[in-house]
TrEMBL record:
Name used for this protein in its record: Putative transcriptional regulator
Classification via Pfam families: Penicillinase_R
Species name: Sphingomonas kyeonggiensis
SUPFAM superfamilies in alphabetical order: Winged helix' DNA-binding domain
Gene Ontology terms describing biological process: negative regulation of DNA-templated transcription
Species lineage: Bacteria, Pseudomonadati, Pseudomonadota, Alphaproteobacteria, Sphingomonadales
Family designation: Belongs to the BlaI transcriptional regulatory family.
One term of GO molecular function: DNA binding
Length: 124
C-alpha cells in the first residue's frame, strides 16, 4: 500500500516509521525537506484516515505511531528498494548491506548463516 501513497504522505509515513512514534513537530524534524507544520498535520491526518498510523494524546499533544502492520509495509518498501537499486536481486542487496556494517555479532552471523542454509535447502 505504501507505494500507492502520494509522495508527501509516503515521506511523512517513512519519517514516522524511522522515529517509531512522534508528534507532528518531531515528524517534521525527521524529514529532509519538510512541508509546513500545518501540512505535516494534514498529511498525518490522512494517514490516520487510511489506517496506516494511529495516535494517542500525551500532554495535550497527539503522538502518532505506525499501526502494527508496519512490518508488512517495511517488507513492501524493502522489495521496492531491491527492485529499484539491485535489479531485483536480494543477494546483491544483502551484500551491499553487509558492506555497510563493519562488525557483526556472533548472533547476527548465525542468523545470516541460517538464512543462507535455508536458501540452499540445507535447513535442519
Amino acid at each position: 500500500m505504501i507505494e500507492s501513497l502520494p509522495r508527501r504522505e509516503r515521506e511523512v509515513f517513512e519519517a514516522l516509521c524511522s522515529l517509531g512514534e512522534g508528534t507532528a513537530v518531531a515528524v517534521r524534524g525527521a524529514m529532509a525537506d519538510p512541508p509546513s507544520d500545518s501540512a505535516v498535520r494534514t498529511l498525518l491526518g490522512r494517514l490516520v484516515a487510511k489506517g496506516l498510523i494511529g495516535h494517542r494524546t500525551l500532554n495535550q499533544a497527539y503522538v502518532y505511531a505506525p499501526v502494527p502492520q508496519a512490518d508488512a509495509v517495511a517488507e513492501t518498501a524493502l522489495q521496492r528498494l531491491v527492485q529499484t537499486f539491485f535489479q531485483g536481486s536480494a543477494a546483491r542487496a544483502a551484500t551491499a548491506l553487509l558492506g555497510m556494517e563493519k562488525r557483526l555479532t556472533r548472533a547476527e552471523i548465525d542468523e545470516l548463516q541460517r538464512a543462507i542454509d535455508e536458501a540452499r535447502g540445507e535447513a535442519e
